[in-house]
Amino acid sequence: NYGFYMGASNDNLAAVRAIDPRATPGLKVFMGASTGNMLVDDPETLDAIFRDTPVPIITHCEDTPTIDANLALFRAKHGDAIPVECHPDIRSREACIKSTRLALELARRHGTQLHVLHISTADELALFEQGPLIRADGSRKPITAETCVHFLRFARADYARLGNLIKCNPAIKDEADRQALIEALADDRIDVLATDHAPHTLEEKARPYAGAPSGLPLVQFALNAALELVHEGRLSTAQVVQKFAHAPAQLFDVANRGFLREGYAADLVLVDDTPYTVQRSDVLSKCGWSPFEGTTFHSRIAATWVNGVLAWDGSALVGDPAGQRLRFDR
């Protein structure tokens, strides 16, 4: 199943104002340069976007001038041979904090519903409200946060082993950040758990640091990885379901999905708590690799149904694609 954010730019404000809220889950705003050319860095445009958008704003928060200054320092030191271990210092925590603070300031100024993506630092967590996404009075948090599976399973030490395979934006940072993000999921300071979904090829990832694209393929093994936190006693199964399924449906007003309820679409996963070791031959992504190769998970996916149709039988994709475009009850 699928839905598409609209992408904001410095010159498409009229199109932003014309978004159909029932067809579009949110407006994606890159407040720092990442893959592609969708950086929104004009202050007046940013202010107008936060003021006028008819859907939630979804932000990737990194401050590009900070990153550019850091990169210049590391180029001066290493030339074209920058070690990938420097990535979290180039796309630094300071770049994340500065941009996230700006997004929250704009959202509060205009009363905008804001969802901040890819939280990667412990420092940013204090900026967000702790508590359930849907409050006791039935209202929804106006400003919410998301982190990704890879920030919970990898840390700075893993660059030595995996190199550019875990180069992503924002960068995977320190072990202390990893631990703090897990705790923030558990105490409802972070509302949603998500994935990166950038299937760059091994050939692209084998380039020197500066030329290797950022991003990694994680969708296939995201649930296995998240359930490791249950086996480690860090989260409950119910919390994983909340962060992966309930919260996105609640946050984006997804119609008739995200819960096991009569009349809802039967999007179901059957989990078998049998150890499973990821092999490259198991990878379904067309890029053909996973950063989890060689990892043994405590759980495997035994079956998946999409709109009531069996799509995965535990060993192979089966049947014809049954996915549908999402609708939003707004």
Description:
It is a single chain. It contains eleven helices and eleven strands. It is an alpha/beta fold. It has one domain: Alpha-Beta Barrel (TIM Barrel), CATH 3.20.20. α2 packs across α5. It is globular and about 55 Å long.
CATH topology: TIM Barrel
Spell out the helices and strands N to C. Answer: EHEHEHHHEEHHHEHHHEEEEE
* Helical/strand content category: alpha/beta
Q: What strand order characterises the main sheet?
A: 1-2-3-4-5-6
Count the strands?
11
Rg, Å, rounded: 20 Å
Rounded to the nearest angstrom, the distance between the terminal CA atoms is 19 Å
| Proportion of residues in β-strands | 5-15%
Q: Work out the helicity level.
A: 25-40%
Nearest-integer average pLDDT: 96
Low-confidence stretches: none
Number of DSSP helices?
11
Tell me what the CATH architecture is.
Answer: Alpha-Beta Barrel
**Main pleated-sheet profile:** 6 strands, parallel
CATH-defined superfamily: Metal-dependent hydrolases
Shape: globular
